[in-house]
Design goal:
Blueprint (H helix, E strand, L loop, with lengths): L10 H4 L6 H15 L6 H4 L1 H5 L1 H6 E8 L6 E8 L3 H6 L1 H12 L4 E9 L23 H10 L6 H16 L4
Parallel strand pairs: 2-3
Antiparallel strand pairs: 1-2
Helix pairs in contact: 8-9
Length: 174
Protein backbone atom coordinates (compact mmCIF):
# COMPACT_ATOMS: atom_id res chain seq x y z
CA UNK A 1 0.00 0.00 0.00
CA UNK A 2 1.64 3.25 -1.11
CA UNK A 3 0.99 6.65 0.43
CA UNK A 4 0.29 9.64 -1.74
CA UNK A 5 2.55 12.56 -1.00
CA UNK A 6 0.94 15.92 -0.47
CA UNK A 7 1.64 18.30 -3.33
CA UNK A 8 4.29 20.86 -2.58
CA UNK A 9 3.06 24.44 -2.23
CA UNK A 10 3.16 26.47 -5.42
CA UNK A 11 5.53 29.38 -5.86
CA UNK A 12 2.56 31.76 -5.64
CA UNK A 13 1.62 30.32 -2.26
CA UNK A 14 5.10 30.81 -0.86
CA UNK A 15 5.40 34.37 -2.14
CA UNK A 16 2.23 35.69 -0.47
CA UNK A 17 3.96 36.32 2.84
CA UNK A 18 2.08 36.30 6.13
CA UNK A 19 -1.47 35.02 5.85
CA UNK A 20 -4.02 35.51 8.65
CA UNK A 21 -4.76 32.33 10.59
CA UNK A 22 -8.42 32.34 9.60
CA UNK A 23 -7.37 32.37 5.94
CA UNK A 24 -5.72 28.99 6.46
CA UNK A 25 -8.86 27.40 7.87
CA UNK A 26 -11.68 29.29 6.15
CA UNK A 27 -12.38 26.43 3.73
CA UNK A 28 -12.76 23.98 6.60
CA UNK A 29 -15.05 26.37 8.48
CA UNK A 30 -17.09 27.00 5.33
CA UNK A 31 -17.57 23.29 4.61
CA UNK A 32 -18.51 22.59 8.25
CA UNK A 33 -20.97 25.47 8.23
CA UNK A 34 -22.48 24.46 4.90
CA UNK A 35 -23.02 20.92 6.16
CA UNK A 36 -25.25 22.43 8.85
CA UNK A 37 -27.05 24.73 6.41
CA UNK A 38 -25.07 27.93 6.99
CA UNK A 39 -24.41 29.23 3.47
CA UNK A 40 -22.98 32.40 4.99
CA UNK A 41 -20.33 31.42 7.55
CA UNK A 42 -20.28 35.01 8.79
CA UNK A 43 -23.52 34.30 10.64
CA UNK A 44 -21.66 31.74 12.77
CA UNK A 45 -18.37 33.55 13.17
CA UNK A 46 -19.88 36.97 13.87
CA UNK A 47 -23.05 35.94 15.72
CA UNK A 48 -22.63 38.63 18.41
CA UNK A 49 -22.25 41.36 15.78
CA UNK A 50 -25.24 40.10 13.79
CA UNK A 51 -27.76 39.89 16.64
CA UNK A 52 -26.25 42.07 19.35
CA UNK A 53 -24.25 41.27 22.47
CA UNK A 54 -27.28 40.75 24.72
CA UNK A 55 -29.01 38.32 22.34
CA UNK A 56 -25.71 36.50 21.64
CA UNK A 57 -25.33 35.80 25.37
CA UNK A 58 -28.76 34.16 25.37
CA UNK A 59 -28.67 32.24 22.09
CA UNK A 60 -26.44 30.19 19.81
CA UNK A 61 -27.22 29.20 16.20
CA UNK A 62 -27.43 25.44 15.72
CA UNK A 63 -28.53 24.86 12.12
CA UNK A 64 -30.48 26.19 9.20
CA UNK A 65 -32.97 23.89 7.51
CA UNK A 66 -34.35 24.58 4.06
CA UNK A 67 -37.84 23.41 3.09
CA UNK A 68 -38.73 21.47 -0.04
CA UNK A 69 -39.89 24.55 -1.91
CA UNK A 70 -36.62 26.35 -1.24
CA UNK A 71 -38.40 29.52 -0.17
CA UNK A 72 -37.53 30.58 3.34
CA UNK A 73 -35.41 28.62 5.75
CA UNK A 74 -35.78 27.75 9.42
CA UNK A 75 -33.03 28.85 11.78
CA UNK A 76 -32.71 26.69 14.89
CA UNK A 77 -31.31 28.44 17.95
CA UNK A 78 -30.12 26.93 21.21
CA UNK A 79 -31.40 29.03 24.09
CA UNK A 80 -31.29 28.64 27.85
CA UNK A 81 -34.69 27.63 29.20
CA UNK A 82 -34.82 30.64 31.52
CA UNK A 83 -34.21 33.05 28.63
CA UNK A 84 -36.61 31.43 26.13
CA UNK A 85 -39.66 33.65 26.81
CA UNK A 86 -37.64 36.83 26.32
CA UNK A 87 -36.03 35.49 23.15
CA UNK A 88 -39.46 34.39 21.87
CA UNK A 89 -40.74 37.96 22.20
CA UNK A 90 -37.73 39.30 20.28
CA UNK A 91 -38.01 36.83 17.36
CA UNK A 92 -39.28 39.37 14.76
CA UNK A 93 -36.34 41.70 15.42
CA UNK A 94 -33.95 38.75 15.55
CA UNK A 95 -35.22 37.49 12.19
CA UNK A 96 -34.74 40.95 10.64
CA UNK A 97 -31.17 41.18 11.93
CA UNK A 98 -30.27 37.68 10.68
CA UNK A 99 -31.81 38.41 7.27
CA UNK A 100 -29.74 41.60 7.13
CA UNK A 101 -26.61 39.41 7.26
CA UNK A 102 -27.85 37.44 4.25
CA UNK A 103 -29.04 40.54 2.40
CA UNK A 104 -32.48 39.10 1.62
CA UNK A 105 -35.30 37.30 3.45
CA UNK A 106 -33.48 33.98 3.70
CA UNK A 107 -34.90 33.06 7.12
CA UNK A 108 -38.69 32.80 7.39
CA UNK A 109 -38.93 30.94 10.72
CA UNK A 110 -36.84 30.71 13.87
CA UNK A 111 -37.16 27.59 16.00
CA UNK A 112 -35.96 27.70 19.61
CA UNK A 113 -34.42 24.64 21.23
CA UNK A 114 -34.35 24.98 24.99
CA UNK A 115 -31.81 23.41 27.29
CA UNK A 116 -31.10 23.32 30.99
CA UNK A 117 -28.96 26.00 32.62
CA UNK A 118 -25.96 23.67 32.63
CA UNK A 119 -26.80 22.07 29.28
CA UNK A 120 -26.71 18.48 28.23
CA UNK A 121 -23.56 16.39 28.62
CA UNK A 122 -20.65 18.40 29.97
CA UNK A 123 -22.46 21.74 30.17
CA UNK A 124 -22.43 22.51 26.47
CA UNK A 125 -24.90 25.35 26.84
CA UNK A 126 -22.44 27.69 28.52
CA UNK A 127 -22.41 30.50 26.00
CA UNK A 128 -19.81 32.81 27.44
CA UNK A 129 -16.25 31.62 27.96
CA UNK A 130 -14.74 31.91 31.39
CA UNK A 131 -12.33 34.78 31.81
CA UNK A 132 -8.89 33.89 33.08
CA UNK A 133 -7.41 36.29 35.62
CA UNK A 134 -4.59 38.43 34.27
CA UNK A 135 -1.34 38.20 36.21
CA UNK A 136 0.34 41.54 36.97
CA UNK A 137 3.43 42.23 34.88
CA UNK A 138 6.85 41.74 36.43
CA UNK A 139 8.43 45.21 36.90
CA UNK A 140 11.87 43.96 35.79
CA UNK A 141 10.45 42.57 32.55
CA UNK A 142 8.46 45.74 31.97
CA UNK A 143 11.66 47.78 32.35
CA UNK A 144 13.47 45.51 29.83
CA UNK A 145 10.58 45.88 27.38
CA UNK A 146 10.64 49.67 27.73
CA UNK A 147 14.40 49.69 27.21
CA UNK A 148 14.00 47.64 24.02
CA UNK A 149 11.60 50.23 22.58
CA UNK A 150 13.60 53.21 23.83
CA UNK A 151 14.43 55.67 21.09
CA UNK A 152 11.20 55.20 19.11
CA UNK A 153 9.45 58.55 18.87
CA UNK A 154 6.02 57.43 17.66
CA UNK A 155 3.98 56.63 20.81
CA UNK A 156 1.74 53.98 19.21
CA UNK A 157 4.72 52.20 17.64
CA UNK A 158 6.64 52.38 20.91
CA UNK A 159 3.66 50.93 22.79
CA UNK A 160 3.33 48.10 20.25
CA UNK A 161 7.07 47.34 20.45
CA UNK A 162 6.97 47.34 24.25
CA UNK A 163 4.04 44.90 24.18
CA UNK A 164 5.87 42.69 21.68
CA UNK A 165 9.02 42.69 23.80
CA UNK A 166 7.03 41.88 26.92
CA UNK A 167 5.28 39.00 25.14
CA UNK A 168 8.61 37.60 24.01
CA UNK A 169 10.18 37.95 27.45
CA UNK A 170 7.24 36.28 29.24
CA UNK A 171 6.56 33.42 26.82
CA UNK A 172 7.06 29.95 28.27
CA UNK A 173 10.30 28.27 27.27
CA UNK A 174 9.98 24.89 25.61
Amino acid sequence: MSRKLAPSPSANHRMRGFEPAFGLMKDAVRSAGESRGFAVARLLTHWAEAVGEEMARKTRPVKIGYGKGGMGATLTLLVKATEAPMVQMALPQLKDRVNAVYGYAAISHIHLTQTAATGFAEGQAEFTPTVRPVKPADPALTAKAQAAADGVTDPTLRSALEQLAQNILTRPRT
